[in-house]
Fold this sequence. Notes:
single chain, mainly beta, CATH 2.40.50.140, five-stranded mixed beta barrel, 1 helix
Amino acid sequence: MPKRVLTGTVVSDKTDKTVVVRVERKVKHPLYGKIIRRSKKYHAHDEANAFKEGETVRIEETAPISKLKTWKVIERVDTHKSPETSEAAA
Length: 90
């Protein structure tokens, strides 16, 4: 069975080897039809304490590591463009 992979923002890195990641999703309101944002926080394992608050990361589902942690951080997601691509577009 494939593991779920989610993308979210690190909201806390205060605990050792753990980050809290907020994952947002957009859903349509059942009656009014407006698109609304729903979010959920996941505790993810970060072995090297490499990820800091505010970064966008990708997390993967794993076997339980502790009471709250069943996810681990895979990688940092680069959301900004590199200088080479912006100069080539100009």
